[in-house]
Amino acid sequence: MAQMKNIEQEAIRSILAGDRDAYRVLMERHLPAVLRATLRITGNTVDAEEAAQEAFLRAYNKLPEFREQAAFGTWVYRIAMNCALNLVERRSRDLGWNAVALDGEPRAGDLAVSHQPTPEAALLDREAVSQRERAMQALTPMERTAFVLRHMEEQSLDVIAKALGVPVNSAKQAVFRAVSKLRRELAPARSVPAVSIPAMSLVKERR
Q: Pick the residue with more confidence: 105 or 37?
């Protein structure tokens, strides 16, 4: 960990000294995690890539303000969350926009598996994905982001609050509202066979 931080600090010093190519070191280390998070928030790869690219561009331009005692990964992650949230808010104002699967999972018909699922199993899988998508669309952009960061990215409330630009208590309330809404939306799934139930563990409020 210490060695990784030293490598990043050296890269940052090189960038600030005029070596733009050194930024590639930071991007290669942190782009996968940033893309995963922006994909879960925006719901599609095009917007996820746009948010990630914007985040790294902002981070590059603001690099002189970066404090070396902080972790670059955490810093760019927070910037990416803001970019993704802003993008989702803009898209939500476009009535023609619909997000795809939140977690970036392929749809049942696109899965390449070694065995052929039964028609019944394939149908239940598609229904589960569709139900999860509908449930997530019931959330506001802030609730969606707060839920993703807390229950999928396993971030602390402090990180969520900074990413959203709100007090910690407001972030906690956003997570609570998201969980409550998802529980209501997914409640009918409890009467469906287990194979079709979305991962309800994701909507259990963490203590």
A: 37
Return the structure tokens found at 199: 């991962």
CATH of the domain at 57: 1.10.1740.10
The most confident of the ranges 88-97, 111-120, 123-132, 160-169 is 160-169
Does residue 107 carry a pLDDT above 90? no
Q: Where are the alpha helices (DSSP H) in 138-186?
A: 141-147, 157-164, 168-186
Amino acid at 182: L
| Residue 84 vs residues 30, 46, 92, 164: alpha-carbon distances, Å | 16, 11, 12, 10
* One domain for residues 69 and 146: no
| pTM over the 0.90 mark | no
| Domain closes at, from 62, 92, 122 | 92
**Residue at a domain's end among 44, 61, 92:** 92
Residues in the chain: 207
Cα separation, 83 vs 174, whole angstroms? 18
Nearest 10 degrees: Cα torsion 14, 20, 25, 30: 120
